Amino acid sequence: MIENLIERFTKLPGIGRRSAERIAFWFLNNSREDAQGLCDCILSLKDNLTFCRLCNNLSETEICMICSDTQRDDATICVVENPKDVLALEKTGHYHGSYHVLLGTISPADGRGPEDLRIGQLMNRVQTQDIKEVIIATDPDTEGETTALYLTQQLRPLGVKVSRIGVGIPMGSALEYTDMSTLSVSLNSRREITVDN
After folding, report:
1. Domain 2-48 in this protein, CATH class
2. Which of 47, 85, 148, 160 is least surrounded by CB atoms within 10 angstroms?
């Protein structure tokens, strides 16, 4: 029974065998209420979270709190790969526009093309709302750069300003692991993307 629990914990990201053992024994040494509380939180997360109808961020309601906030700049959309990137950017406190979560990146090696992402939904938002700028904040890795280039090519004909987050994020890294001050600098030093024909 303990071995089964340890094995399950090792499937979590960043948890090795030794950490899994410590977590398992922590549960054994603490109250049933602690264990039940964690189980309830996990099940509630699985049962009650959905994707926002407008931006694809995680939400407990049909429209997420960010999309519902009338104080935000709805003329700017920041495009990210996953909901965890929204969380990372929100922690900086420097971005006050709306978001669009693609739910992945273009990756031919993994069989993911543009049609597998929420790109059509983004194009619809840009065409039907008064969008002035789209900030592309995909990760600076091969898939993220491929996705950024594709989005730029699709957005340019719509007459919207397209920019890319700027300096500070090393190639190959992920937004979720980047510290808040670096993300703030990247947002503030974003550059407009130009594509030569």
Report:
1. mainly alpha
2. 47
